[in-house]
Structure to design on (653 residues):
């Protein structure tokens, strides 16, 4: 989590320089869902994400240089500078795809699970999506299919209470939590504190066990919160769609702070070690950025390349 | 007359029409938020409040149907998509129902409504956030499709849409938002199917859809320096199409260049070229030239994005291929989106 946070904060700090010309949705504040779930996965398990995909990509083991180069529009980017921040992918480590149209990758995750099931491959397919995607038809159509075909899908809804500037309570029924709607499809489902990485991890392990034992999908709703603006590197308190009090409340429940405190209290690490890790990550990301800046842009001669296979 | 920017003209048209007709409402994700769809719905929200300007859940297809149902029951919905790419999700309701309603149900009721889709451009918005869907939707009978480049036109056409009884899809290119010109303070409708001759000329006709009408004007400025007089036509409405104005222009100039913000194949440029081939061939002194986006999804990386879009210089180059022309094409030209950094 600390690595992801350090990487994203460094990128956010450099974003205003104008070298990363790609609309960027930061995961800062939501790292525990990505890390908790991905820690429960094997390399062969498939992960799909949406527009807010940095944390998922990194947690699944996505190549850092590939991500940074993609943000800087370089040929060495994981999508060769064609896809941008919202299309991170690294299939070699099971990070199959991310997409900027809401809900698309819910269906593709179901499809990958379908392929696993057809071939009796023992993997699970995970889809990360926001609470906003729950309103789209594709969410319901995909859940229904996954249930009917008993597919090994782990649905992970990162409920950060907002869709851009629109609060959840104005968009969906207040009294029926999202996971309960998944239950109504006959799916095993659970809500978890998405800022508590251990809780997320345990829930994901349980979910994957259930998928393996009982067959059929599992639904995990992780309650979390986005710290920065919807898209872009800034804080947006002044915008008026949420209060500073609410932001403070969630920042006080920072997933990294919580995990560090727990680790320290158990004597699993020392404050010095934490500092050391942080420095290590800082050096790693700065070195990566430095090397990426020296890499070439795509050659315009290759503009059409890759449109067809 | 005072000048307005494109986005201000949209806002003014909506506000004035809403003041006139209480059945008009504006719905869409973010229409009531602090940014108000790049400013275009802010004033309407301030004036008419949340009963008539309201946020909706993320449900593009359902809402296209909901709006259709409201329209046949007497309302005049204005549905807004912050990116027209999201209209792909609504395209079943738009194409299979809204467009065909009048015809399919024997003409019993109309579907008066306006769907606004904004075409993203600049800052690497990429493959799924910068497509212009005017030609795709114009394929289907039953819809009016408009994509004007200039502020007075967008105002006049919105007025026609909100006075009429046909479903209208409006495509607004994000790069047009800063274009400024004099706009009437009155409610003056501009009819569908009437092109605007943006600049008169006698040597060559350039027809540009959406932003390309503006880029064609910039191209015409460059051409003028080398003594070539280009006529620039903005069709404003993609369907119905003003064939007469385009044919009359070809009859005058004998040369035709067509530019579009979408793709060439099966698109707007193909339609205009077909018009020239079918009905204007006797006027042509040279082949028709077409310019559009490169034949691939929109890339993100800056050099690729720059190579992807047609520009005033590529329009000039196309003109150059049709006539003796001495222009220095290496002359630097600022991209219309040069200083754009969002909000997207
Ligand atoms: C089909 C579609 N409609 C609208 C959008 C514009 N949009 C991008 S992100 C977003 C909100 C997404 O909210 P949520 O799914 O909760 O994810 P979060 O941004 O909170 O992580 C919206 C409306 C889109 N990308 N795709």
């Amino acid at each position: 989590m600390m690595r992801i946070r350090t990487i994203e904060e460094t990128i956010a700090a450099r974003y205003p320089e104008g070298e990363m010309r790609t609309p960027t949705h930061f995961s800062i504040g939501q790292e525990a869902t990505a890390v908790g779930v991905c820690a429960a996965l094997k390399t062969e398990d498939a992960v799909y994400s949406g527009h807010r995909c940095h944390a998922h990509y990194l947690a699944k083991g996505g190549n850092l240089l590939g991500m940074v180069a993609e943000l800087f529009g370089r040929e060495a980017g994981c999508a060769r500078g064609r896809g941008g921040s919202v299309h991170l992918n690294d299939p070699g480590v099971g990070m199959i795809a991310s997409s900027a149209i809401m809900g698309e990758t819910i269906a593709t995750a179901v499809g990958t699970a379908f392929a696993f099931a057809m071939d009796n491959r023992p993997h699970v397919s995970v889809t990360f999506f926001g609470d906003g995607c729950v309103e789209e038809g594709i969410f319901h159509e995909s859940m229904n299919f996954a249930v009917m075909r008993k597919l090994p899908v782990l649905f992970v809804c990162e409920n950060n209470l907002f869709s851009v500037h629109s609060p959840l309570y104005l968009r969906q029924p207040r009294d029926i939590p999202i996971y309960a709607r998944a239950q109504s499809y006959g799916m095993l489902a659970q809500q978890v504190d998405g800022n508590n990485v251990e809780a997320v991890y345990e829930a994901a392990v349980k979910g994957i066990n259930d998928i393996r034992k009982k067959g059929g999908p599992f639904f995990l709703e992780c309650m979390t919160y986005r710290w920065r603006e919807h898209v872009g590197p800034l804080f947006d308190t002044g915008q008026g769609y949420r209060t500073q009090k609410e932001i403070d409340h969630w920042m006080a429940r920072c997933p990294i702070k919580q995990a560090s405190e727990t680790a320290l209290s158990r004597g699993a690490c020392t404050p010095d070690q934490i500092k050391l890790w942080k420095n290590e990550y800082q050096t790693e990301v700065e070195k990566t950025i430095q090397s990426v800046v020296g890499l070439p842009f795509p050659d315009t001669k290759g503009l059409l390349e890759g449109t067809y296979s | 007359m005072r000048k307005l920017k494109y986005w201000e003209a949209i806002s003014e048209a909506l506000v004035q029409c809403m003041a006139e007709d209480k059945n008009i409402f504006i719905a869409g994700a973010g229409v009531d938020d602090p940014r108000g769809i790049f400013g275009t719905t802010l004033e309407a929200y301030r004036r008419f409040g949340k009963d008539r300007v309201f946020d909706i859940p993320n449900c593009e297809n359902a809402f296209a149907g909901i709006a259709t149902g409201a329209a046949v029951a007497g309302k005049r919905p204005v549905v807004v998509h912050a990116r027209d790419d999201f209209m792909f999700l609504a395209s079943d309701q738009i194409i299979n129902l809204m467009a065909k309603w009048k015809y399919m149900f024997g003409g019993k009721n109309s579907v008066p409504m306006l769907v606004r889709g904004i075409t993203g451009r600049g800052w690497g918005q990429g493959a799924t956030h910068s497509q212009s869907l005017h030609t795709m939707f114009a394929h289907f009978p039953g819809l009016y499709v408009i994509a004007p480049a200039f502020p007075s036109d967008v105002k006049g056409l919105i007025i026609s849409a909100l006075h009429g009884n046909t479903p209208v899809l409006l495509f607004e290119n994000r790069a047009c938002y800063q274009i400024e010109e004099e706009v009437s303070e009155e409610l003056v409708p501009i009819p569908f199917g009437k092109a605007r001759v943006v600049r008169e000329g006698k040597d060559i006709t350039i027809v540009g859809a959406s932003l390309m009408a503006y880029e064609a004007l910039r191209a015409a400025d460059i051409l003028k320096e080398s003594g070539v007089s280009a006529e620039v036509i903005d069709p404003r409405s993609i369907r119905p199409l003003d064939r007469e104005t385009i044919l009359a222009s070809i009859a005058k100039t004998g040369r035709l260049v067509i530019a579009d913000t979408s793709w060439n194949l099966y698109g707007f440029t193909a339609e205009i070229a077909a018009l020239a081939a079918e009905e204007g061939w006797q006027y042509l002194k040279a082949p028709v030239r077409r310019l559009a986006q490169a034949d691939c999804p929109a890339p993100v990386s800056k050099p690729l994005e720059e190579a992807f879009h047609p520009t005033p210089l590529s329009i000039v180059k196309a003109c150059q291929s049709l006539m003796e022309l001495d222009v220095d094409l290496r002359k630097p030209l600022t991209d219309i989106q040069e200083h754009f950094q969002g909000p997207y």
Notes: The pocket of thiamine diphosphate is lined by residues A 51-52, 100-102, 129-133, 160, 162-164, 226, 230; B 29, 58, 60, 86, 89 (CB under 6 Å).
